[in-house]
Amino acid sequence: MTVLACPPAGVAKGADAARKAKAEAGKASLGGKLFKLSGIAGKMSRMGNRWQARYFVLSQSTIGYGDIASDGGLKGSSSFGDMFGTDEFSGTKKRYALYGSYVVPEPPERAFGKDFAFAVYRSDADAMAAESGQVKAGSVISHDREQLLLLAAEDEKDKSKWMGQLLRAAGRSGILFKVGEDGVYPYDRLRCVYGADPLVADLGAVEVGPTAGSKKVLVRSVDAGAGLGSCGVKVGDELVKVNGIDVPALSSSIIERMFESCAKPLVVEFRRQRDAVIFKELAAKAALSRGQDNDEDSRKQRMRESMDVGAALRADKQTQEELRVKRAAEDEAEAREVSEALARSGPTEVEIEQQRLESTVHQVLGAVETSAKADSYFYGDAPDFPQAAAYYQQALDSLLAVKDDLADPSGPARLLIAQKAPDLSLANLFDHVNANGQQASANAGAGVTTHQAAHPSGCVPLPTTTTTTTTQEDDPQVNAA
């Protein structure tokens, strides 16, 4: 991979903005245990390299480390042993200046088999200082390699936390790479590792061809000194994937929500046309379409919104796993907090909130029943595809009507649904009514009257879901809410 080098955030806006950005970067702070790859004479080689546990301290755009047993990297200890001193690096053996550096995740094959690895690469300024023999105070620079540190965390969550703070300390929202040199395709593949800063960019579907349906998600505006623009992303770049998930042609608002729902740091993939004329044309079309997403008929709009809700419910694998683990321990406490909050809000508000939550649950369970009814027409021996399409659309409308209440996985509506239908997967339900609804509509439009296969292509069978109807008198938690 080749780094498409850009200055740290704020530099493009002038000296004053650059000073403020550097001061902000110095506020990044973190401490804890990481694994560091060490080698013979400090060189990264396959002979003698080994992973060693060290304590690290990050502060003032500088990272330092020490041995676990002795130095420990004890933040707050002074050179005289005072535990409340001001020298944060007194217990460290080495330290590295981070401002302007690059921080990227490394796969196991580039980390000698270690999981949850990431690397810190020295900045352009450090590289020039090394060549001229001028080394900044507090910096440790290797003359024979660009990589300063190859580190690994104990889990994905810890890795994300460290990478986010290291990017902040480096004064970067993210870093952009060109992946490989592939002459087969007319575009360059770009990969951006991006932290938690706002995107400060507009991305949306743009018609790039002469015929309808030739849409691509393009960058329509950026700020050269902030967000994606500070990483080197340009107007006209095509958005392809976010955290390994393909991005369909969606509106700007939905793409923005998708970015917000993904785990950070993000790994975003773009394409950039090599031909300067073609790229200029794409950039012009992207800029003209800014803030003007094309109108679509209501059915397509509902489908797009349902895709967005489904993606938000699924989120990233990491986030979903954390939610599943936490939900088992926190459901009872959260339900009690909701009940107490509603009780404090006054009788009228309690009644309104209770009715709204019950209505949401009723809508969702009704959508399950309507979907099952649609299935009977869809999968029956004598299928009625128009009737099936109508019922699938009815189920979809019911879910979209309460999508705001379902957006929070730990919200009161989701908790009540979990109590009444513990085996129900809302993401699967969305996928089911979407895919089968589209297939039923297509079959109806084509005049198809029989099944060509047990499960038509593109359909998503929905597993049998058991729901339990519970009255307020039967369920003390619901009654309390």
What does this entry look like structurally?
Helix content is 41%, strand content 19%. The chain has 481 residues and is an alpha+beta fold. α7 crosses α10. The longest helix has 33 residues, at 347-379.
Short structural description:
With 481 residues, the chain is α+β, with helices and mostly antiparallel strands. Helix content is 41%, strand content 19%.
Secondary structure tally, helices: 14
The overall average pLDDT, rounded, is: 75
DSSP summary, beta strand count: 15
Elements, N to C (H/E): EHEEEEEEHEHEEEEHEEHEHHHHHHHHH
Q: Main beta sheet: strand number and arrangement?
A: 7 strands, antiparallel
Task: Give a topology summary.
Blueprint (H helix, E strand, L loop, with lengths): L1 E2 L11 H11 L4 E9 L11 E10 L2 E6 L26 E4 L4 E5 L10 E5 L2 H9 L14 E6 L3 H14 L4 E5 L8 E8 L6 E7 L7 E8 L4 H5 L6 E5 L2 E2 L5 H10 L4 E8 L2 H13 L9 H17 L2 H28 L2 H33 L5 H17 L1 H4 L5 H9 L5 H21 L29 H5 L1
Antiparallel strand pairs: 1-9, 2-3, 2-8, 3-4, 4-5, 6-7, 7-8, 9-10, 10-15, 11-12, 13-14, 13-15
